[in-house]
Amino acid sequence: MLEAGANDATLALWPWRWRIEASIELTDDGLIFHQQVFNEDSEPFWFSVGWHPGFALPVAEQSGWQVKFGYKAVNGPFPTCDRTLIVPEYASPTEFFTLQDKSFSQGAIYFDNSQNQRIQVCSPEGGKVIEIETSEYSWLALWGIPGANFLCIEPLAGTTDAPDFNGQAAYKRGMQLLGSSQNRIFTVRLRFPLDA
Question: What pTM did the predictor assign?
């Protein structure tokens, strides 16, 4: 288990007492990743948390790779531009996203309503290569380096800034409020199916 918490240096930048624990449990077909955030302060605070695993996959040299959403449709895709997330007023539901050469030319691609979801990365032949089950992470970001055989799949509780973000954490999209002496657990199950 890894653990980090508030100290004099962090309190000078962010005036709340916090602690986070992260652990990885190996399974027969992958792993389970846990993050637990603790509010050890006398006041509530806003936070975001995420996990950013990256995978070496031939997404640049083979066309037709897809990311599928298994339990329900998600909202998106939402592009980023200059590290700012662009979300239209009406969000289209989608059940899959096909990776293309220019998918990440402006940055990450986001999807909303991704909590309690099963995400599958499928090869051009349709084989499931990676399967991720999320818990309370309401956002998912996909990111890669254009032209590289690399895909980052990021379950997130919080996003990059919106164009109209006013700097107040309470109004930042996806932020989580954690009351004094409370904690919240986020879990991701990662599988590498045998049919890949």
Answer: 0.90
